[in-house]
Amino acid sequence: MDSGDPRVQKAATQPDADPFSASNKAAASAPKALWLAIVAFAFLGFLAVGTGSAQSVWQVISQFIGLHGEPEPASANVLSEHELEVLDQMSPQAQAQLLLERSINHYRGANDEIAARVNRWRGKIQLDGQMGSLFSTALNSDDLRVRAAAIEIDIASRNLEKSTATMDRLEPDARSAEQGPRVNALWNIALLGNRGLQPDRAAEILLSSIHDSNENIRYWAVEGLAYLGTDETIEPLLGVFHDDPSPNIRERAACGLAQSGMLSERQRRTAVPKLLDYAEDGSLNSTTQSWVFQALRDITGQNLPHDATAWRNWYNSSNSGNWNPVTRDGQ
Predict the structure, then answer these.
(1) Which residues are CB-neighbours of 110 under 8 A, at least 6 positions away?
(2) What's the whole-model pTM score?
(3) Of the chain's two ends, which shows fewer C-beta atoms within 10 Å, N or C?
(4) Which distant-in-sequence residues (6+ apart) come within 8 Å of 30 by Cβ?
(5) What is the mean pLDDT of residues 154-173?
(6) What tens digit of pLDDT does each residue of 122-135 get?
(7) What angle do CA 103, 104, 105 make, to 5 degrees?
(8) What are the C-alpha distances in Å from 129 to residues 11, 23, 150?
């Protein structure tokens, strides 16, 4: 990502903004949705008149797919033969866009195709428009494999070669360059480290910036640690969450520990004992303590009140962390 990347420019001037958020277009479709709803109800009313029974209407309604219960497959989630046949005829941008969408929807074979093609996409794709929206969705997937696919595509869009030479080139900028190039280098190093290129070196470079006087540099160092996703990033993220003077940075550290980034569920669980200590720490302000409870809920799936004693009692009764994951609805 060069210094002209609008996401970095936005973060440089608004460090509390999410550089990956997509614009909300839902409002534009509201009139169409309303019209469809009116037509649907008119149709059901016609059925009621025809059968002379409101009960018949509900029998019709019951045949529609509801929003609750187990997933209802639409078809086998595999890439179609037609898609595989035409992939090579598509532009790199179109290939990446299609396969990332299929990865988000857990189509078997999508990530294999991304892995096989991503090096050929390097420098030939851009994260803009629909691709940018898909990238944002993938980075927030509940499946780390989908997030990894998004990172691979981001690396390709930045024209980064996975080599020691690339890390050698980026490190000086990550340590001492002016803000724009430094932010780019920190993020690039985090992505490459996550994909297996010298992760220990990447961690050391990122850690050298988490106490920088520039808040935006700290923001991207913390974000980078979350996306590097190695075991050694957890303690520093906990320290930043507790001690950084900026609420914005503390919140990003909490998000990195709880849900965003590339830490696994197992790794996030190791932060719970320290988070329980934070819940009992009277030196933290009310906002930071609320983030502690939110992080505990996101990591464990437990829907407990914002009460340190309740969380401590639950943890002790669950055999010190050997709990079974539950959904947010407690199921």
Answers:
(1) 79, 99, 100, 102, 103, 149
(2) 0.79
(3) C
(4) none
(5) 98
(6) 999 999 999 999 99
(7) 90
(8) 19, 10, 15
